[in-house]
Inverse folding.
């Protein structure tokens, strides 16, 4: 075929498309407004003659495609111009309609409330609103987003739609209107919100996905095309785009809480949005939607959609919950979705799919005669009539066929409704035809290449890090020890460094327009992705420090370890979500306050435990920055650079739009930012502006040693060397000395070494006062002792006493009360105690003071949002005073919740804030930690943390909670990571990044407490392994499944009495740091009783100060390798005092060659099992896992973790029963199953809430296991009549426990005759004990919970 003939054929086909598009689409376009109706039909289901925003954009896409096709062949008939301007006219008509509602946009971007939403439809002739704010579900973020997607595509293709700067500013405000789609419930693409259509909006994947597409498409587009300047460019903040994209990926394939799947997801994963970048998720979503929704006549919109079915009651808009099930299998089918699938095949290159659905669509078309074609439009010399292909809105099942269709889905003939044609569907059909006929290419309709966003490979992003020193003195000190930095004054004069809040000020001017009465972006914090870009204005470059490092008010950033951990998390997040060209650039300003203020480290100081912890924390932070020179940070590739070096490789965004904004005072922003930075850099730790030297605190309350941070990288000098660090910290201390303040209260001295109790216990805190030794009993709220308390406060030199007294004083008077003797208000005194506690790292005091001061983390709402958008609900408080957060909330509302619901302990509020912050951090970087969890109950998480402390230290609940509150923020975060990681306690090195850093602050086993050892097949199996500093840095012992960790450096000794089956004690000796510890080790080994089983393990290093006597004692015990151990080697030994050397087991590996292999020792105890039956030892006579499974159940129950498919399986159980029962509470089948589908998120929430009735986490988890076993029985015996009655969970569980108890009582003679059960062994007398023993069984095995639960369930079926 010649070029001329090919052109002739193309023109002929284009003329055909021009005729049918003119007849079916453009003929409906209003000549004045440019808008067009969704349809010309007016039926019992509604008036379709209004101009819907969504329908108008979709309808004009065919016209847009045809215009591009004519442009391609260089048409000279004028049709390309005509069609292009038809597109422009419609888009501008929509723009004008929305601009008339500019006040709504201005309010909505601040409030996201329904009454301020843009209207979803307008009068076709005038563009005016047609219904009131509350007379329609107007909030449809997908419609506004689709408009922006089309605007970006059309502008990029060369069409000029935006003419003035006023219009540019409005479009920029539309970006702000949709940028919080991830947290804004709307009515969605079907204008109904919840599928019941009762007016309740919900988060929808289709809305969030279209917002992602719009933000991605419109970013950087110049609205004036190639003729535009910087002021006509649209800007999108990367963090907002990332939050929306993350939310979308966590939602798919689900559409919303009430709709488990929806056909609208096609518009998200393919044309026009192309919003999902995960190829696997796209395929999974498409497959699930096709499986559940596809029929012969199209797709259902969603399951149980009653719209325009014969059973729908058209007299009301909403449905009753119990009537939804009647629509099952007879939902209307929409040919529209076949048009989407045709386009999907064409855009992805799957032409077989495109052909398949084109044929299916053709069979559904209703042909109609159109106007006659002139001779110019045909190959004939005579006019002929045009046949118009019309696509109905939907096909429904006639009433007489409904029952047959329900019995045999997809078997009955369906008929089209009266809405013919659906212009939206017609447009997509014609667009697919233009591409199929090769008159148009996918790249022309998608000029931005968004269809290419799908990625199958992980990105390898290098993060550039710039370290700055606040002054030359700090710079010189750091450079002596290998950390090269710049000061701000040394940076090029063309570069300025500003805090993150200055960037928020800048973007507050973006889109500002006085004529439209529109402000810019609300002054919300800019995230790490936004501050990792460089910005240029008129040739000057601006860099911004990250927002998370600017939090000076809350105590978190006072913990250097936490700060390093937060920095790691932010780097990982940046690396994972960076999508701009160039590298991200993170600028860090190091200050004396951050690194200085450290005393010279003296390890031999008699009372230096707290000092050591503080110094190690500072050392860890310094090491963290030094290790960045190694090129990696927790798996993220990094590069330390000078700021000037990052310009060529970084990403630079223009701020030149500020030039055209006379309302923005850029010089004032710069001045304010610099003043803020100066204030931050020179902030005092007190209230006097006079620089004075405060008295150095004397003895500090003994504090358990802080965590150690993993070392790495290469730098000048050895920062891990005590000598090196001693010199460095001395220098930093001298730099910081001038910042020491003077305080009103006396400096802290260690006057008590005993553990302190919570002052709120019994409302009568007993406070030791100095210098007076007597106790002062105070009752909170009783002012009779107010003056005595003031005098005690003036005299006190103990920070714990000071905070207790402050709490009492504030319970009697207000914060503003002035104390004359101290010349300060109570608030000023409390702030002083708070700052001292932060500086000295007394975290329990810091939390108590923060609670009294009502301190709140500024970024707390961001963390809540990060959890909510990933479908994790958060609760605050407990019992009747538990508040469930299901949608993002503002700072004021959140602060009110904390004050109202966290009242058990004044420290609870700050700890809850910490937990939320840590959860938000984890879910951003390690979302898999939350698998199987829907609801995060902070009170239960605190219980899980307390139980983890109890497990590690074997203390009671009260001691455990106090130990917990003494942990530093980083230690608490690490402990939370341990609890969150599924069954991490079973595998202590499964996550070495956390286990190695987990604090030594949790105390070791109390030597006075013996721990029973369970018997497994009449034997004890001891397994042990050691890893030196470079080889994992751990010491682990496993005794019949009971895992014990050595938490400190040096030599760990475990002592076992094989006769009484007791772990007698666990001791540690830091032979690395002192010979005194080495001598103590020698004395310990010498004092062992004969036949005692001994386990000796090395962690970190044991050789630096080990003595000959200690080595001799080890050899006397039977060691043959102890003298071979060198610096930081791995070493492990298991033996028996006085036993044969050949029975001992031992292992040693050289440092750097990996940890030792696991060594094992098997001890037969048949001949000497004489343990007396007591409350502590009775578990030895029952099958058990040494508390492992009980702990696991308590942990999973506290986290509300469930197995995969649990909720859908529970739905099937509920469908075959009357409901679930927990005591007097019921989850009934009707209306639950009638309203909700198996995989509907609302059903999962209903079951989760029902299981929440269990207050015992382990009991709750056994209830989950009960439902799991019932599912297994149902699957194995599908014909068994299992579910005619109510499923009584407590009865089944109690019966299973009784079967377990009775079996082992009957089979164990010693239990029948023991004094402990002398009053009888009846289950009902010991049900609590039996329950605890039952909870420690494994799920599966010879003796397991599943076995007994199965027996109990089968009894109910007999």
């Amino acid at each position: 075929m010649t070029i001329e003939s090919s052109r002739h054929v193309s023109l002929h086909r284009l003329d055909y498309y021009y005729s049918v598009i003119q007849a079916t689409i453009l003929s409906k376009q209003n000549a004045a407004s440019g808008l067009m109706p969704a349809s010309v039909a007016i039926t019992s289901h509604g008036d379709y003659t209004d101009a819907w925003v969504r329908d108008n954009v979709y309808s004009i896409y065919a016209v847009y495609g045809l215009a591009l096709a004519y442009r391609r062949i260089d048409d000279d008939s004028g049709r390309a111009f005509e069609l292009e301007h038809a597109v422009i006219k419609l888009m501008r008509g929509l723009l004008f309609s929305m601009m008339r509602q500019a006040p709504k946009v201005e309010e909505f971007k601040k409030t996201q409330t329904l009454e301020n939403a843009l209207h979803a439809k307008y009068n076709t002739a005038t563009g005016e609103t047609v219904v009131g704010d509350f007379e329609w579900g107007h909030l449809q973020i997908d419609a506004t987003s689709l408009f922006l997607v089309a605007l970006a595509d059309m502008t990029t293709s060369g069409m000029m739609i935006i003419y003035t700067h006023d219009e540019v500013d409005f479009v920029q405000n539309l970006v702000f209107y949709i940028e919080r789609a991830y947290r804004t419930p709307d009515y969605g693409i079907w204008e109904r919100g919840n599928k019941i259509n009762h007016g309740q909006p919900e988060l929808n994947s289709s809305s969030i996905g279209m917002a992602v597409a719009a933000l991605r498409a419109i970013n950087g587009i110049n609205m004036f095309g190639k003729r535009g300047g910087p002021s006509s460019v649209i800007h999108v903040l990367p963090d907002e785009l990332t939050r929306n994209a993350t939310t979308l990926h966590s939602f798919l394939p689900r559409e919303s809480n009430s709709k488990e799947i929806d056909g609208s997801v096609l518009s998200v994963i393919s044309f026009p949005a192309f919003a999902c970048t995960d190829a696997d998720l796209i395929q999974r979503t498409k497959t699930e939607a096709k499986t559940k929704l596809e029929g012969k006549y199209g797709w259902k919109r969603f399951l149980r959609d009653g719209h325009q079915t014969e059973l729908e009651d058209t007299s009301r808009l909403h449905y009753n919950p119990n009537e939804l099930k009647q629509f099952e299998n007879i939902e209307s089918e929409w040919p529209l979705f076949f048009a989407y699938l045709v386009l999907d095949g064409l855009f992805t290159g799957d032409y077989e799919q495109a052909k398949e659905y084109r044929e299916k669509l053709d069979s559904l078309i209703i042909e109609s005669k159109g106007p006659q074609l002139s001779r110019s439009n045909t190959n004939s010399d005579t006019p002929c009539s045009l046949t118009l292909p019309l696509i109905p809105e939907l096909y429904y099942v006639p009433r007489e066929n409904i029952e047959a269709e329900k019995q045999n889905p997809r078997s009955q003939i369906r008929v089209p409704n009266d809405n013919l044609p659906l212009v939206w569907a017609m447009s997509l059909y014609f667009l697919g035809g233009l591409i199929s006929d090769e008159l148009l290419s996918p790249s022309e309709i998608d000029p931005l290449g968004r269809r290419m966003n799908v990625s199958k490979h992980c990105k390898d992003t290098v993060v550039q890090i710039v370290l700055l020193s606040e002054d030359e003195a700090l710079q010189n000190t750091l450079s002596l020890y290998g950390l090269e930095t710049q000061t701000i004054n040394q940076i090029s004069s063309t570069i300025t460094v500003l805090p993150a809040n200055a960037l928020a000020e800048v973007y507050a001017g973006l889109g500002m327009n006085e004529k439209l009465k529109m402000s810019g972006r609300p002054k919300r914090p800019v995230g790490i992705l936004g501050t990792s870009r460089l910005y240029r204005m008129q040739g000057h470059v601006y860099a911004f420090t990250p927002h998370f490092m600017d939090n000076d008010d809350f105590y978190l950033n006072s913990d250097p370890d936490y700060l390093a951990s937060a920095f790691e998390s932010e780097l990982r997040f940046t690396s994972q979500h960076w999508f701009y060209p160039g590298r991200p650039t993170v600028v860090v300003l190091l200050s004396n306050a951050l690194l200085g203020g450290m005393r010279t480290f003296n390890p031999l100081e008699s009372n230096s435990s707290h000092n050591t912890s503080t110094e190690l924390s500072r050392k860890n932070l310094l090491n963290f920055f030094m290790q960045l020179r190694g090129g990696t940070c927790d798996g993220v590739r990094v590069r330390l650079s000078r700021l000037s070096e990052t310009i060529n490789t970084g990403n630079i965004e223009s701020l030149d739009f500020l030039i055209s904004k006379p309302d923005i005072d850029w010089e004032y922003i710069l001045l304010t930012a610099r003043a803020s930075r100066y204030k931050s850099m020179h902030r005092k730790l007190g209230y006097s502006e006079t620089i004075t030297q405060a008295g150095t605190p004397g003895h500090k309350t003994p504090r358990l040693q802080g965590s150690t941070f993993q070392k790495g990288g290469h730098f000048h000098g050895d920062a891990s060397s005590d000598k090196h660090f001693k010199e460095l910290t001395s220098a930093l201390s001298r730099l910081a000395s001038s910042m020491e303040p003077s305080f009103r209260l006396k400096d802290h001295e260690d006057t008590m070494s005993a553990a302190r109790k919570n002052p709120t216990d019994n409302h009568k805190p007993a406070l030791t006062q100095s210098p007076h030794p007597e106790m002062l009993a105070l009752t909170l709220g009783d002012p009779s002792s107010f003056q005595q308390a003031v005098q005690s406060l003036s005299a006190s030199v103990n920070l714990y006493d000071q905070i207790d007294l402050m709490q009492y004083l504030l319970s009697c008077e207000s914060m503003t009360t002035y104390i004359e003797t101290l010349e300060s208000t109570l608030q000023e005194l409390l702030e002083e105690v708070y700052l001292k506690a932060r500086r000295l790292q007394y975290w329990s005091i810091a939390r108590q003071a923060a609670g009294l001061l009502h301190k709140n983390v500024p970024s707390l709402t961001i963390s809540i949002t990060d959890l909510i958008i990933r479908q994790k609900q958060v609760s605050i408080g407990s019992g009747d005073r538990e508040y469930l957060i299901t949608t993002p909330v503002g700072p004021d509302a959140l602060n009110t919740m904390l004050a109202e619901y966290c009242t058990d302990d004044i420290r609870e509020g700050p700890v809850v804030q910490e937990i939320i912050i840590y959860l938000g951090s984890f879910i951003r970087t390690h979302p898999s930690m939350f698998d199987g969890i829907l609801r995060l109950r902070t009170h239960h998480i605190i219980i899980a943390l307390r139980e983890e402390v109890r497990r590690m230290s074997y203390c009671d609940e009260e001691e455990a909670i106090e130990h917990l509150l003494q942990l530093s923020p980083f230690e608490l975060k690490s402990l939370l990571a341990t609890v969150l990681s599924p069954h991490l306690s079973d595998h202590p090195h499964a996550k070495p990044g956390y286990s190695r850093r987990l604090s030594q602050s949790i105390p070791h086993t109390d030597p006075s407490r013996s721990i029973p050892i369970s018997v497994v097949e009449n034997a004890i199996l001891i397994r042990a392994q050691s890893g030196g500093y470079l080889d994992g840095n751990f010491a682990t012992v496993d005794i019949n499944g009971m895992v014990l960790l050595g938490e400190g450096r040096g030599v760990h000794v475990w002592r076992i009495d094989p006769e009484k089956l007791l772990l007698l004690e666990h001791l540690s000796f830091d032979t690395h740091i002192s010979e005194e510890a080495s001598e103590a080790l020698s004395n310990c080994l010498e004092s062992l009783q004969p036949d005692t089983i001994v386990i000796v393990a090395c962690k970190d290093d044991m050789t630096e100060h080990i003595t000959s006597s200690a080595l001799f004692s080890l050899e006397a015990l039977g060691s043959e390798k102890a003298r071979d151990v060198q610096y930081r080697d791995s070493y492990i030994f298991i033996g028996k005092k006085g036993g044969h050397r050949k029975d001992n087991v031992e292992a040693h590996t050289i440092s750097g060659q990996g940890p030792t292999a696991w060594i094992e020792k098997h001890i037969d105890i048949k001949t000497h099992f004489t343990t007396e039956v007591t409350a502590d030892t009775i578990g030895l006579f029952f099958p058990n896992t040494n508390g492992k499974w009980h702990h696991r159940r308590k942990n999973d129950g506290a986290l509300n973790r469930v197995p995969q498919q649990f909720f859908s399986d529970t739905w099937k159980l509920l469908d075959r029963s009357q409901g679930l029962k927990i005591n007097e509470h019921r989850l009934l089948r009707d209306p639950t199953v009638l309203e909700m589908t198996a995989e509907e998120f609302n059903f999962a929430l209903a079951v989760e809430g029902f299981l929440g009735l269990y207050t015992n986490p382990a009991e709750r988890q056994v209830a989950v296991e009960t439902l799991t076993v019932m599912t297994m029985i149902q699957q194995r015996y599908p014909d068994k009549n299992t579910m005619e009655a109510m499923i009584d969970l407590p009865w089944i569980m109690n019966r299973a426990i009784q079967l377990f108890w009775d079996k082992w009582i009957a089979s164990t003679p010693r239990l029948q005759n023991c004094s402990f059960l002398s009053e009888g062994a009846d289950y009902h007398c010991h049900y609590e004990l039996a329950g605890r023993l039952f909870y420690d069984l494994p799920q599966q095995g010879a003796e397991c919970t599943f076995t007994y639960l199965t027996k109990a369930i089968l009894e109910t079926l007999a």
Observations:
- The mean pLDDT is 83.
- The two ends are 80 Å apart (CA to CA).
- The longest helix spans residues 3-24.
